[in-house]
Protein 1
Amino acid sequence: MGCSSCFWGILKATFYPSPKCRILLSMHLTLAHVAPRTRDEFDAAIRRYLARCSPFVTTDAQLFKSEEALLTWIDRQHGRTPVIPVLLDSRGRQMTSGVFADWLGARRNEGAQNIVFAIGPADGWSAPTRERAQLLLSLGPFTLAHTLARLVMAEQLYRAVTILSGHPYHSGH
């Protein structure tokens, strides 16, 4: 049920729903990347998009110095369900925003607790890491700078949760 139908949404008519209307319930989304730098020119915008997700789902961003460090971190995450690793890869599946939202909603319906969207090292993911992914996701045929890919993915996460909540942010074209 979208947040526009809850009492808080109707009474307040706010742009964001109340925290009680989290459409992804107890899911946690992590935007991870493997890179040598700790900050870049898009950090503030990425943080803003992830913060905009907060009325709907909990999010965070993680930086890893190596692919191995990312995999070790994923292995240490505990919950009632295993972490779902989604690797951004040029050879991965391309989706529209609506299809991506449907994919995320299906994971919610299956009871997924943690999903990690990871942007890999400059030379790409190793074959063993690619095999661990539940989904290889492509942002399109263009090659994007790491920082720009992070920003695009942060915006798509926000767009997906707004689509799932029936929020007017997504216009459908």
Protein 2
Amino acid sequence: MSHHNLLRRLTGLACALGLAAGVASAFAQTSLRLSTLKMPGSDGAKAAEAFAKEVEAGTQGRVKIKVYPANQLGDWAEVYEQVMQGAVDMAMQPVATSDDKRLAVTWFPYAFTDYDSAEKALTTGGAVFEIVNGAIGEKGLTLLGVFGEGMGGAGFAKPVDNPADPNAKRNLKVRVWPGGTTHRALLERFGYNTATLPWAELYTGMQTGLVDGQIGGTANMALESFKDITKTWVQFNDHFESDWLFINSKKHAGLSAADKKVLLDAAQKLTRQRFQDVKKADEKALQTMRDMGVKVVTFNKQQLESLAGVARKEVWPKIADEIGQPTMNKLRASVGAQ
């Protein structure tokens, strides 16, 4: 074989090998499925899509995330189990508190009082972020970030006297969700009566006067479900409604340290960006209510701190069992409560 032919053959072989290596590296990527309850086109679905793009760009295409909105992979409780098992890779949704009582910290009353304290507690290193990450970590899940839905409040079908006074007695019955022991204790301390009603019966319950109000959601949620029967909205800032962005820990462990960092950074960017947007979304919802003629009650920082002070001092000891003493101690330390 002539020297020229050999060279040509070797060049061809090198090209083929190079091509094969190129093909191999193009396929050496991780494809992850992310489930969310959010509807296509909603802020949540858009945030999940932006997160996926950010991860793909940051990992130079090594990690691709496909977002499945609107519960396409199953309802959130099923998906929670599936992410534990690794059948679904990631999710942005609620965490199952029935599974671990420490997770009730996610709606614990007055764990924070405003957007700044909520953001601090819900980003990496923050008390609530670390408590949740620790609890779900034992189930084979790794927490990456939080998508905030908004600050909680209570909607009433009638007027509310002196809502800023935690010591007033009121002849008003407020629905708490079945299992909502935390908020039952809170409302009773704030002078309200409480009742548990299934979600499906709540609208009729408020309409017929079986209950006078409901707590546990945001102003936006009240507009979606109770628009025409809400006459008073009290922005208690009692909890911060969130969806949690987490990944199966084994899948996470299979990524390189650099790609793990990209994933966490992108999730934390989503968290911080949403905190800026959620404040505006809440303000917009409150303004929509005002324009509809709903009496909207908001509290200044001092009033919120005063309500939170009463809750932390007098209500927390009664509901400490809901999250367990070690978690309670972490929470107390994080808010500087004695």
Protein 3
Amino acid sequence: MAVKVIKKATSGSTVETIKHSSGAAVHKATPVPVESAGEPLCEVGIVAGQTINLGNYNSARISVSVKLPCIKAELEATYEEALGWVDQKMSELIEQAKSNGVALPSDEEDPLF
């Protein structure tokens, strides 16, 4: 199985995208210290999951999560950004699972996920 790893730096975190040969993508964010000019640092985390019935007694469990660092003054805006990102990724993965009719790779099948 071919796995492609892409890393890019964003404000507050380094995002690593692992693309599986089946088309599934896993995003891992690693926090990077943010200079806050004395403001308290916060972290916003969103987790979403759903079990999809694929028919013929098969199902796939899909979960997406993200944690974003921020300063307290930007807490609500960061929450909305994180919620929008998780919602978009969940929709993409659910559509992919339903259209392929097969389960996405799980932790047991591939230790990279």
Protein 4
Amino acid sequence: MAKLIESIELEFCTISLREDDIVEQRFVREDPYSITAEVLQEFDDTIKKICNGEQKCILSIPGLYGSMTPEARKVPVFKDANHTIAIALIIQSLSQRLLANFFFKINKAPYPVKFFKNEIEATLWLREQNQAHQSTSQVS
């Protein structure tokens, strides 16, 4: 696991910048939580702060018992996504996978989003995305 450079603790989630330049969003594992529209805004503000104006790849590790309120599902989550290169989601349960597939089919992300069963595969993919982004940025 990569070393954390900076971390911001929220109510049921920690958002960190790792030494491999990936932003990690790690939710509480065992405790139930509900994501509201206000919480989504807090996540976005915190990720922007951690990114410090730079584009980063994001590794999101949801907990086992998370949910999203109907109001939060209506929030246009990709309206200001210029700080994100790609997102890797660690999804282990079938119910989470079905909900995530449904969410991302309705809400088209302007960057690559991929689901993984473990952090190692997700991290390798994000490093590839980061490297491809840096190569494209240097050519431009």
